[in-house]
Amino acid sequence: MNLLRIFIFGLIFVFCSAAWGQEDEKKKKKKKEDNEWIEQIDFIVGLKPHFTNLSDFFIIHEKKAGSRTNFFLIDKKNSNSIIYRPNINSTAGGELMFKFMRLSYDWSTPIFKKDFSNGFESTLNNIKLGINTRIFGLNVYYTRYNGLYLMNSDALGVTSESEIFRNDINTYTIGIDMRFVFTGKFSIKAAFHQSERQRKSKGGFLLLIADRYSFFDADRTLIPNNHSNRFSDLNKRYHNAKTNTFYIIPGWAYTWVAGKLSFTWLLNTGLGLQAQSYRLDNDYVLKLKVPAFVRGKAALGYNGDYFYTNLIGGAEFHRMPLQDAVMNYEFYNWTYAIGIRF
Predict the structure, then answer these.
(1) How far apart, in whole angstroms, are the C-alpha atoms of residue 22 and residue 200?
(2) Which residues contact 182 (CB under 8 A, 6 or more apart)?
(3) Sorting pLDDT into bands at 50, 70 and 90, what band is 15?
(4) Residues 6 or more apart from 285 whose CB is under 8 A from it?
(5) Most CB contacts within 10 A, which of 103, 111, 314, 319?
(6) Which long-range contacts (CB under 8 A, 24 or more apart) does 318-321 make?
(7) Segments in 54-104 forming alpha helices (H)
């Protein structure tokens, strides 16, 4: 019986050793493959100051053909749309990065800001928290603006300062993004966060699952008096607008690599499911819509052993369809950053 026990335990030991050895070989093979495409960078913490030139717009236009503002062509001479924007054109901030986590905060700067004779200013709060692995990323963000002005007031024939400079308009957004990459040979972390290094040019299919809650508040109508007849559902006191939009959006990204230099582009586009709640005078309106969503990013970077830097351009388009009008949220930015690892 003792010999049988020894024999059985011996078989179990041999089987477990073989299985462990096979698993170890798989891990070594996977690590070798990863090292061929993606290089791990050992560090404890990274510090990355950045400067951003931004252009954010809140646009109202009619649904009829020809009245829509074209993407990338925001024009203060446009008389078809009502275009609000904050008096903030740049921010400065910093990112604290660990192996799988990063925290960033931005504050507004006076650079590129318009100097109005009445001293009109806007305020901004922007904070982001991210958790990133090679195939999965989770980002949580909060952005708040206080005070917007009517950018195309001359084209609209609006002269009243109370209609042009709107300290009463406040907007904030709370969002969560979950990003999935369906290949182990391409790294979003290397492209944008630079916590590892892409060694060979490669691309990959992406899936973005996101939820975005937006709140837009004003004490009075957003429509100038001389244009109230164009927007029947916004003639009244349109304010306290709340939207919650859920997206499941496919995308694609690709990185070109030359040594420690890289260039990456990324595009997500599709439709979302949007729950709307807003007030017209004393009437509350609840609706369900299917708006379009587009997000594009590009990054040019150098990823050294201790120092790293990149230039990132980005654009996002969100829509809020109403009865006979559409509100567009359009965000454009260029960010330059330089960091150091310890």
Answers:
(1) 28
(2) 135, 204, 205, 206, 207
(3) very low
(4) 276, 277, 278, 279
(5) 319
(6) 318/212, 318/214, 318/245, 318/291, 318/293, 319/291, 319/292, 319/293, 320/214, 320/241, 320/243, 320/274, 320/276, 320/289, 320/291, 321/63, 321/274, 321/289, 321/291
(7) none
Confidence grade of residue 70 (pLDDT, cut at 50, 70, 90): low
What one-letter code names the amino acid at 295? R
- Measure CA of the first residue to CA of the last residue in the chain; give whole Å: 60
Query: How far is the C-alpha of 180 from the C-alpha of 182, rounded, in Å?
Result: 6
Burial 103-115 (b: 16+ CB within 10 A, else e): ebebebbeeeeee
97-116 average pLDDT score = 92
Between CA 204 and CA 266 the distance in angstroms is: 10
User: Cα–Cα distances in Å, from 64 out to 58, 78, 150, 173?
Assistant: 18, 16, 22, 28
H/E element, 33: helix 2-37
**Contacts of residue 317, Cβ cutoff 8 Å, sequence gap at least 6:** 71, 292, 293, 294, 295, 328, 329, 330, 331
pLDDT at residue 120 tops 60? yes
pLDDT in tens, 219-239: 888 888 888 777 765 655 556
Question: In what helix (H) or strand (E) does residue 24 lie, and over which residues does it extend?
Answer: helix 2-37
Q: What is the per-residue pLDDT for 65?
A: 46
What is the per-residue pLDDT for 283?
73
The average confidence (pLDDT) of the chain is 85
Give the burial class of 148: count Cβ atoms within 10 A of its Cβ; 0-12 exposed, 13-18 middle, 19 or more buried: buried
Class of residue 286 by CB neighbours under 10 A (exposed 0-12, middle 13-18, buried 19+): exposed
Q: Are 239 and 218 in contact (CB under 8 A)?
A: yes
Q: Looking at the DSSP assignment, which residues form a beta bridge with residue 126?
A: 106, 143
The C-alpha atoms of residue 192 and residue 245 are separated, in whole angstroms, by: 25
Q: Is the confidence at residue 330, as pLDDT, over 60?
A: yes
8 A C-beta contact, residue 213 and residue 180: no
- Sign (positive or negative) of CA dihedral 68, 74, 80, 86: positive
